[in-house]
Design goal:
This protein has 131 residues and is of the alpha+beta class. It has one domain. The protein has helices at 99-106, 109-117, and strands spanning 10-13, 26-28, 34-36, 50-52, 56-60, 71-74, 80-82, 87-91. The strands form three sheets. It has a four-stranded antiparallel beta sheet with strand order 1-8-5-6, covered by helices on one side. Strands 2-3 form a two-stranded antiparallel sheet. The chain is globular and about 50 Å long. The termini are far apart.
Length: 131
């Protein structure tokens, strides 16, 4: 079986909501879905938030409170915005890799185990010195 690097098939996207054209705010759940945001948005400007178009993915690199799950979702609805700390990416050529197929791969329990194993964390270890 021949394996291909996923990096050859996806690219990061960083389109910001600078003109406030998108107002639908979403978060990402460990069930791999875009959900209504639970963040307190009082006084927060949405201009730096990232726009997620249909068939784009959203990934949250922080794994500290997500157990063994990787928070990643495929937007199958209308464009929305997500926090600027999230990573948005898309499939480069949909004739070579269908976004829904890639999302099926991300939904496998083995993907979560593999990704968590290779995750060095987004927080320092508890024994690391604090400055």
């Amino acid at each position: 079986m021949s394996f291909k690097r996923i990096g050859d098939y996806i690219k990061q996207v960083d389109k910001r909501n600078t003109d406030f054209s998108v107002t639908l705010l979403r978060g990402v759940s460990t069930t791999k879905k875009l959900i209504e945001s639970v963040a307190n948005m009082s006084g927060v400007s949405l201009h730096s938030y990232k726009i997620v178009e249909r068939e784009q993915f959203v990934y949250v690199s922080d794994t500290s409170r997500r157990g063994d799950k990787i928070a990643i979702a495929l937007n199958v609805e209308e464009p929305c915005i997500v926090s600027s700390i999230y990573t948005v990416f898309e499939v480069i050529e949909k004739t070579k890799l269908v976004p829904e197929y890639l999302f099926l791969w991300f939904n496998r329990a083995e993907f979560d185990r593999y990704a968590r194993f290779h995750s060095w964390g987004s927080l320092p270890p508890p024994h690391a010195p604090r400055h």
